[in-house]
Design goal:
Length: about 375
C-alpha cells in the first residue's frame, strides 16, 4: 500500500482534471460535479481499503491513489484538507482529508413525494435519483463514512439548466443502525436461544405463532391505485398467475388441515425459522422491543464467506430493534426521545449478540455488512 502523504507524492498527476483551479493541490473544479468522501485526521487509507474489500470481492487498489469500491466506481486520493480548502468547500472543522468518487452519473426518475424526508441521501437528488453503479457506490460510501465517523459531500441535482449543482453534506449517524447478526454453523433450538438471551434480556420468550391477519390479504389487500401501477409494471398476466398460485396453495393447505382433523391427528407446521422477543426496558414500554430472528441464511455477507464453516449451512441470528413506530428504526437524525430509546435498544442488542456468539460461535456483522468485535 503506497503512502499518499509522503513529501514526494503528487496525487493530482493521477487524475485527469489536475489542471483545474486547485487549493492545496486539490482540483477544486471537480468538487461540485463529483461526490466526495470526507474523513477525519485519524483515519488511514488502509481502513478505507479494508472496508471496501469487505463489501465487494472486486474492490482494491487499481492504480496509484485509485481504490475501486465497485466495478465502474473508484475512490481517488486522498488529499489533505487545509483551512482554505475547508472554507471553499464549506466543510466541517473535523474534515482533514477527502477522496473523490469517480463514477459516471446514472439517474432515474424524481424522488416520490411520499419518500421525501426519509433518507438524506435520496433527498439530495429530488429531480433524478441515482441508480445502478452510482447508487451502489454511494450506498457503500455512506456505509464506509458511517463506520469511520466521516461524511459524504454529494454533488446533488443540477440547480439550473446550465449544469451547476447544489452540493449536499451528509454525515451518517454511527449509532443509527442497531441491528447485529450472528452468523454461525450451529443451530440452537428456540429454548436454547431464550436461555442465552434471558440473563441480559429478562422476559425473553419464543415467538412461534404469527398473528392472524385482519381483513383481506395478498393482492386483495393492495390499494387499487397501487394495484394499477403493478399491472402496468409487471403485466396483468403475471399478477393473475401469482394470484392463482397463491389461491392454489391456500386450497391445498385447507384440504390437508381438513384431512388431519378428520383423522384426529395434529396439524404439523414445518418451520425453517423462529423468533425470540423481549422488551427493551420493562419500565419503558414506549421504547419498543428487541427481536431475535433465527433462520438459515440464504446468502452471507462477503465478510463472512472467508470462514471455513461458511461453506456449509450457515445460521443467521439477527437481533433487531422493533420500535412502536417502525419508521423510528430508520431515521438518520431522530428526535431526542427516539435517540434515547434507540441507544437503549442498541446496548441491549450488543449484549444479546455477545451471548449468542458465546453460545453458537461464528462472527458478528452489522447492518452494513462489516464485521463487529464484541
Amino acid at each position: 500500500m503506497p503512502d499518499f502523504f509522503t513529501a514526494g507524492a503528487d496525487l493530482a498527476i493521477t487524475l485527469p482534471d489536475a489542471a483545474l483551479s486547485a487549493v492545496g493541490s486539490f482540483p477544486v473544479g471537480r468538487a461540485d460535479t463529483q461526490h466526495l468522501l470526507l474523513l477525519a485526521d485519524d483515519v488511514t487509507v488502509d481502513e478505507v481499503e479494508a472496508l471496501a474489500l469487505s463489501l465487494d470481492e472486486h474492490a482494491g487498489w487499481v492504480g496509484a491513489s485509485r481504490l475501486q469500491v465497485a466495478p465502474g466506481a473508484e475512490l481517488q486520493g486522498p488529499w489533505r484538507v487545509d483551512d482554505e480548502l475547508r472554507r471553499v468547500l464549506e466543510l466541517p472543522d473535523w474534515v482533514c482529508q477527502l477522496m473523490v468518487l469517480d463514477c459516471p452519473p446514472q439517474r432515474a426518475g424524481a424522488l416520490p413525494r411520499e419518500l421525501a424526508g426519509v433518507d438524506p441521501l435520496t433527498d439530495a437528488f429530488p429531480s433524478a435519483q441515482p441508480t445502478g453503479t452510482e447508487l451502489l457506490a454511494l450506498t457503500r460510501l455512506r456505509a464506509i463514512a458511517r463506520r469511520l465517523a466521516g461524511g459524504i459531500r454529494l454533488a446533488g441535482d443540477p440547480a439550473a439548466p446550465g449544469g451547476r449543482t447544489t452540493p449536499v453534506l451528509v454525515v451518517p449517524d454511527p449509532e443509527r443502525s442497531t441491528t447485529l447478526t450472528v452468523y454461525s454453523p450451529v443451530w440452537i433450538v428456540p429454548d436454547g436461544v431464550v436461555a442465552l438471551a434471558d440473563p441480559v434480556a429478562p422476559g425473553a420468550r419464543v415467538l412461534l405463532q404469527p398473528e392472524s391477519a385482519q381483513g383481506p390479504t395478498g393482492l386483495a389487500a393492495i390499494p387499487p391505485e397501487e394495484l394499477s401501477r403493478l399491472v402496468k409494471t409487471l403485466g396483468e398476466d403475471v399478477l393473475d398467475a401469482a394470484w392463482r398460485a397463491a389461491e392454489q396453495r391456500r386450497h391445498e393447505q385447507a384440504e390437508e388441515e381438513a384431512r388431519a382433523l378428520a383423522a384426529g391427528t395434529p396439524v404439523e407446521e414445518l418451520r425453517d425459522g423462529y423468533g425470540v422477543v423481549a422488551d427493551v426496558e420493562e419500565t419503558h414500554p414506549d421504547w419498543g422491543g428487541m427481536e431475535i430472528r433465527v433462520q438459515a441464511a440464504e446468502a452471507v455477507p462477503l465478510a463472512v464467506r472467508g470462514e471455513s464453516w461458511a461453506r456449509g449451512g450457515v445460521i443467521a441470528y439477527q437481533v433487531v430493534w422493533v420500535p412502536l413506530d417502525p419508521a423510528d428504526a430508520h431515521r438518520e437524525y431522530p428526535p431526542a426521545e427516539v435517540r434515547r430509546a434507540r441507544d437503549a435498544a442498541g446496548a441491549l442488542i450488543e449484549k444479546v449478540a455477545a451471548a449468542l456468539l458465546a453460545g453458537a460461535g461464528g462472527v458478528v456483522v452489522d447492518d452494513d455488512g462489516f464485521l463487529v468485535a464484541l
